[in-house]
Specification:
Pfam family, one: Sugar_tr
Biased composition (Low complexity): 84-95
Number of helices: 14
CATH superfamily of the domain at 20-62 and 166-352: MFS general substrate transporter like domains
GO molecular function, one term: transmembrane transporter activity
Helix content: 55-70%
Protein name: Solute carrier family 22 member 13
Order of helices and strands: HHHEEHHHHHHHHHHH
Strand order of the largest sheet: 1-2
Transmembrane segments: 38-57, 166-187, 199-216, 257-277, 283-304
Oligomer: single chain
CATH topology of the domain at 20-62 and 166-352: Growth Hormone, Chain: A
Structural class: mainly alpha
Length: 379
Amino acid sequence: MPSMEEKARGAGRLEKCPRPTFEALLEQVGSFGLYQRLMCVMLIGGSTLVCSLTYYAQLLMMLTPPLSCREVPADRQTDGSCALLTDSSTPSLLDAAGGPGEPQGNGSTGAGATEDGRCSSWSYDTSVLFDTIASETSRPASRPGRRQPLLAHCTPLQNDWVCGDAWRPFTVNAVFWAGNIVGSWFWGILSDRLGRRPATLASFLVYAAGGALTLVQPSSFAAILLVRFLVGSAHNTVSHLPYVLVIEYCGSAYRTYPLMLLIASWGLGGLLLPWIAYAIWNWRILVVVTSAPLLLALALYRYIPESASWLMVNGRGDEAREVLQFVASVNGRQLDEAVFCEVMVEKREGEPEQPTESLLHVWKHPRLMKNLALVTLLW
C-alpha cells in the first residue's frame, strides 16, 4: 500500500501533466483538412479579392481623362492641360496645378474663358479613359463599336474636379483611410463583444451599401466624403476579420497558408481590375461589379462558423461543440468529448480574470504612445 509521501509525489506529477489546449482539439478535428481549405478559398480568397477590386476601382474612379475647355478654340489650348493660350500663344493663364498664372504678352484671356482665365466648362477625351466621378459631365459614352452602357440613364454629375478643384479626389482618398482607422477600432470591439460571425456579416453589408450609395451619387461633396468614409470604415475588416476567423480553425503549423492566400488574392485583384474596367468601360457598372459580390454573404451566412474559441471563452460550450463536431465530420475525424470538456473548463476557469484596458492607457507609456502614433501616420 503506497505511503502518504508516495501519494503526494503522485499527485504532484499529475498536477505537472499539461492540460489539453485548444490546439489539441484542432488536431482531433483536423488542423488543416478539407473544411479549413474550403474556408480559406471562400472566406479569405473571396473577401480579399473583392476588397482589392473595390480599392483599386476607387483609385481609377478618381482619375481624370485628358481634358480641354469647351469654350475655347482648340488652337488656344495646351494639350490636356489646365492652361489656356493667350493671344501671344503663351500658356500662362492657368498653371498646371489649377491656380491663376501671370498674364504674358498682352495679357488677354482666351475666347470663352473668364476674366481670370478660368474655364467654366470642360470636355474630356473618353476614348482614353471613361468618365469618372471626377469628370462625368455628360451621359456616359460607349467606346466605338460598343452598345450604350448600362446605367446610362443615371443623372450625370457636374463635378469637374480638375484644375482648381483637383484637390477633391485626394481628399476623398484621405477620408477613405480616415474611415479605415475608425472602422478598425469599431469592428474590433464589435467582433469581441458579439462574435466574429455577425461582425463579418455586418462589415460585408456596410461595404456593399457604401458602394451602392456611391452609385446613387450624392449631390454634394460632403455627402460623397461621408459615403467613402463609410466604405473605408469596413475596408480592412472585410478581408482581415475573415482571415482571423479562418486561422482560429487552423493548426499553428498551417497558419501561414491563409496568410499567403490573403496576399495572393489582393495581388490578383490588382491584376484583374484594369482588365475588368477596360471590358466594362463605365465607372457605375464597375462599382456594382466590385461591391455586389459581398452580398453573397447573405446566402452563405449559414455556412460561416462562429469562432469555437470565442464561444468557449464566452461560456457557449454547446454551440462550440456543435461547430467542432461539424468541422470533424467534414474532415473525416471525430471529436473526443472528454478532451473538449477539459479544454472548456480550462477556457472558463483556468484563465485568471485580466483587468480591462482601453486605448487611453497608452498615454501612461510615452514610448508606446510614440510608436503607435508613428505607425498610424505611416500607415
